[in-house]
Amino acid sequence: MRCVILGQGKSGTTALYYAVREQAPGAVGVFEPKDLRDLDLSGPEIVVKKMIGMFEPAEFECLARFHRRIFLVRDPRDAIVSRLLYSVWDPAFVVQKAKVSAFLEQLEAKERDPRSVSVVALYALASELQLQGGNGLEQVELLNPKTLGLWPQLRESFFLLRYEDFVAGRLAGLRRYLGLVVHHDVDVPGGHSRVSRTRASGDWRNWFTTADVEYFRPRFEPFMSAFGYAPGWSLPVRPTINPDHASRYAERLVVRLRQELQPGAVRT
User: Fold this and answer.
1) What is the mean pLDDT of residues 89-110?
2) Is this prediction's pTM over 0.85?
3) For the chain, where do the domains classified as CATH 3.40.50 start and end?
4) Helix or strand or coil: residue 233?
5) For strand 68-73 and strand 46-51, is the pairing parallel, antiparallel, or unpaired?
6) Which one is the CATH code of 2-74+149-195: 3.40.50, 3.30.1120, 3.30.420, 1.10.3470?
7) How many CB atoms within 10 Å of residue 268?
8) Which of 15, 49, 134 is nearest to 83 (CA)?
9) In Å, how far are 222, 240, 248, 253 from 245, measured between CA atoms?
10) By the 8 A CB rule, do 72 and 12 touch?
11) Segment among 7-11, 130-134, 158-162, 260-264 with least mean pLDDT
12) Is residue 239 very low, low, confident or very high in pLDDT (cuts 50, 70, 90)?
């Protein structure tokens, strides 16, 4: 079985990649190749995770070489929050204590009063602090249209999987398609375990403010409509944000990346 998983960043592609590999232990695994044309697709078993942001039209010819093809999508409202928190995985950022403290302090303020700081404002801060992922809003402006443009060309040959169904264990259709009993609670190896945060859906409601709804609604509804997401935008009266999935998660990423860098790299 040759299987390719195509999806946006922070859409669960890493977990799905390892879930498939777990049930196909003899398969060669290729994690985020730059170009599918560089792969040896002559062998009988290979599992490939390819990011939509890195997918180029010239790679279309390679897709027919795979027996199983999965197109993974996620509610863009949850994805935008996940991208924000993962943006701290930035070598140039984590070594600057003052910038790290400024970002974590705003996350902590958001936790204390979720309506006090908008997601858009947090992205503005990330951009001001020069995080690599601080331009996430601009990236989505390009990535969602690219995803929407790809899907009509691939829908006849790809199995559409929503992240929300994957993490909830609603996998009957995927299992039939793959011929494998994949599981949603797969263990992600240490090197890639950092990408895992909540493994849940719908937490965007606790993060978004009314200003965020006004900003994101016209930008996200075409994507949501195309992939069957309900258009509801109501927010809870008393939102709550778990620090383990917010400031503490970001802090763990900072600490981990600092450990991977050379000693003495951290500066004020």
Assistant:
1) 96
2) yes
3) 2-74+149-195
4) coil
5) unpaired
6) 3.40.50
7) 8
8) 134
9) 28, 11, 7, 11
10) yes
11) 260-264
12) very high
- Report the Cα 80 to chain-centroid distance in Å: 8
Residue 5 is predicted with a pLDDT of: 98
Q: Alpha-carbon distance 178 to 256, whole Å? A: 35
Termini Cα distance of the chain: 51
Amino acid found at 196: S
Angle (deg, nearest 10), helices 247-260 and 97-112:
160
| Cβ contact 1:164 at 8 Å | no
Q: What are phi and psi of 138, to 5 degrees?
A: -70, -35
Mean pLDDT, rounded, for 35-64: 94
Residue 193 predicted with pLDDT over 50: no
* 2 DSSP 8-state letter: E
Going by pLDDT thresholds of 50, 70 and 90, the confidence category of residue 194 is very low
Confidence of residue 179 (pLDDT cuts 50, 70, 90): very high
* Residue of 41 and 262 predicted with greater confidence: 41
How many CB atoms sit inside 10 A of residue 109's CB?
14
Residue given tokens 């997601």 in the structure block: 119
Using CB atoms within 10 Å of the CB of residue 139, give its burial: 0 to 12 exposed, 13 to 18 middle, 19+ buried: middle
Quick one: tokens of 62? 């390679």
